[in-house]
Design brief:
288 residues; mainly alpha; globular
Length: 288
Amino acid sequence: MIKNLFIGILFAMLWASASVATKIGILSAQPLVIGNSRFFIAATLMLSYSYLFQKNRLPNVSEWKQLAIYGFLNVTLYLGCFVIAMKHVSAGIGSLATATNPLIISILSAFWIGRSVKKTEILGLVFGITGVGVATYPLLKNSFADAEGLIILSISMISYSVGTVYYASQKWELPLLVINGWQVLLGGIFLVPITLFFTDWANNTYDVRFWSSVFWLVIPVSIGAVQLWLYLLKKDPVKASLWLFLCPIFGFAYASFLLNEPITSYTYVGTIFVIVGLYLAQKKKFKG
């Protein structure tokens, strides 16, 4: 139980950093350039280690189909839209959007894989959403956002939730690192035509800020956080999604330190609500 608790918190800490890292990166380069650089570097590292050192097998025909669908949902649509949205909305709103996924995932799970949602989970979701709303109220009130960015961000969140439920509904026999490596590579490949069409290559500066952003998005986020996420999904997709409630809280701390966004009393009150929500939704696991 302690292991799962640690993994959940570490996942939220790493995943929450993506918004701030992306906001920093787009000061030097266009969003899709950052995205594709991140995906191909991460995939190369993971697959090289998987096949050169772990000697894993290649996917079979049915597994290629699974990986392609998951990569399209989890990388091409979700992360592709996310990096574009970060050009139009603040890091705080990007972190806030992450907290909408547990509700979407729980609803999709009920219809897709026949998983019933317990009353304590519903109550936990209510507390979590309330906490996120309280914590982000001042930020939402003062943050920059436009309709285009919010629409793209919504598509991103829905795709992430659908991808999560799809992953949980499939039988996977490949190691997690192989799954992660191929889904990132395939998702990046699907994104290449869009990147080539929409990118103005003259407006990219490959400076220290760009590479620092890409490095962080590759190692701690695409490799570290996603590996933890796939582990949590194997345990329970709905309970795994509840850890996303912590992402905005960590996101506020990063944004405050790196982007000078304020932390207020609303943030502290919201944090308490989020922690209570997590406990209610997973209290059987906490006791176990």
